[in-house]
């Protein structure tokens, strides 16, 4: 039997999110991925010493990781995340809600432009709005790893604000006969369900059971 030589190459990259005028990071993705993906993927290979893989870490990403590691990064997202939930101001909640809304619009716009996930057909809303749903999961994070430098600080009240935003979008779109608006309306309703599941701790199997019951008209 012929032997196949297979190379696994993980290309780890991030754009440079730091605003060189203000010195603040405009998006949190380098920090958020550095907390789990970059280190975790390489670390797990210690459990499989016979597996060989290559990780390519681009300079623009590593420069940002180094600044976070040194504690010199100015990140308004991190400041809001580290603040105890009971100390969140109205301005903090508005800032976090704004980030969720921007993710909604960005991912919706990308799907309209590319049609990558096939919304309006058989596509999954979960795949069209990954950043939005990851943001919601982060707001509800209740546990951290043993080596975490800060405790988990769930913010369910911000998730409730996000639900109000989604409900508002659905109301605006209700009855609209435009095809694109109809796709957004259906996707938004699905997002409301997904966010509610996460807010109330409904696992995947229970969610499937509920949806099957709704489809069959079971109270």
| Order of strands across the main sheet | 1-2
Low-confidence stretches: none
Distance between the termini: 58 Å
Outline the biggest β-sheet. 2 strands, parallel
The SSE order reads EHHEHHHHHHHH
Mean pLDDT: 88
Radius of gyration: 20 Å
Shape: globular
Work out the number of β strands. Answer: 2
Number of helices: 10
Determine the strand fraction and express it as a percent band: under 5%
Question: What is the SS-derived class?
Answer: mainly alpha
Helix percentage: 55-70%
List the helices and strands and how they pair.
Elements: E1 9-12, H1 29-34, H2 37-43, E2 54-57, H3 59-70, H4 76-82, H5 90-114, H6 125-128, H7 130-139, H8 156-173, H9 179-199, H10 204-215
Parallel strand pairs: 1-2
Helix pairs in contact: 5-7, 5-8, 8-9
Describe this structure in words.
This protein is mainly alpha-helical and 219 residues long. It has ten helices and two strands, in the order E-H-H-E-H-H-H-H-H-H-H-H. It has helices spanning 29-34, 37-43, 59-70, 76-82, 90-114, 125-128, 130-139, 156-173, 179-199, 204-215, and strands spanning 9-12, 54-57. A two-stranded parallel ribbon has the order 1-2. Helix 5 (90-114) packs antiparallel against helix 7 (130-139), helix 5 packs across helix 8 (156-173) and helix 8 runs antiparallel to helix 9 (179-199). The chain starts with 8 loop residues before the first strand and ends with a helix.
